[in-house]
Amino acid sequence: MKITFLCQYFPPEMGAPAARTYEHARYWARLGHEVTVITGFPNHPTGIIRPEYRGYLVKREKVDGIALLRTWVYCTANKGFFKRVLNFFSFLFSSFILGALMTTRPDVIVGTSPQFFCAVAAYLLSRVKGVPFVFEVRDIWPLTLRELGGLSTRHPLVLLMQWLEDFGYRSADVVVSVLPAAEGHMVSRGMDPAKFHYLPNGIELDGRRDGGAPEIVRSAIRPGAFTVGFVGTLGRANVLETLIDAARLLEPDGVEVVVVGHGPEREQLVARADGASNIAFVGPIAKEAVAPALGLFDACYVGYRRSSLADFEKIAIKDEARPLILKENATNL
Description:
It is a single chain. The protein contains 11 helices and 12 strands. By secondary structure, it is an alpha/beta fold. Helix content is 35%, strand content 18%. Helix 9 links the parallel strand 10 (255-260) and strand 11 (279-282). The strands form 2 sheets. It has an 8-stranded mixed sheet with strand order 3-4-2-1-5-6-7-8. The protein has a 4-stranded parallel sheet with strand order 11-10-9-12. The protein has helices at 16-30, 81-102, 116-129, 143-149, 156-171, 183-188, 215-218, 240-250, 266-272, 290-294, 322-332; strands at 2-6, 34-40, 58-63, 66-71, 108-113, 133-137, 174-177, 196-198, 226-231, 255-260, 279-282, 299-300.
């Protein structure tokens, strides 16, 4: 097949959208499919384009059998709602225009969300090319923005995104989600239930131990201390303020916390940790270094802010499967 995939983020950028799109495209290419990914120039989450990509309006690349078409976007750091919306809009227009002019007709076009404007570009491109449109949904927007971003249900941009969400569910030929319990919500917004397919995230088992833990993480760990680590996006959904507050309370007990990553909450978290000698912040690390880095910690922190969004991630596990899952987890640990 000829597959065109639109995603604003792609390696060397960090984060789930970039990683998931890359892994999908890499495996499809390995299976013999012709894959084109339309994406932006790497700048997430800092808003600063990497030096090797500066000065271009468009650039073609070939990565692991994937044909990349990189397009200009308005760059901004991963904070500030209105600037981020401008960033999203810029990719909508540039990816659609370049996709229409600089790509051949595929068999299918996939658009991923978040963010919705990327999916809109994919839909428009599918109409121009006359091919099916697959809508991949990882987070439920604009509900996520309302619950975690504090935006009103009557906010003009929320209303626009609500319309785009409903339009995406209705207009897509197929809707794919990593959220096992999202179908009911999508049907309530106008999706034909026959379109829905649940496809969970995966992990590259053979590659998770590749490489070593970066020295920047090793040097942040104090010898002999019990170390709790976090690796990921420093966002509001991760409730990292709880980890920081707990670390301050446990400072006399020799517990150390290492926070690895970048995100919109970093400055606030650093300020919250001010004066604590047992809290270290480390910048983002390469994807292949994540598993070795996690292996350095005595315990890892995972937080999720309480909200109705968690309902979309619930999935029933049959009782007879539990012993196998527990046994397998214990073996891995």
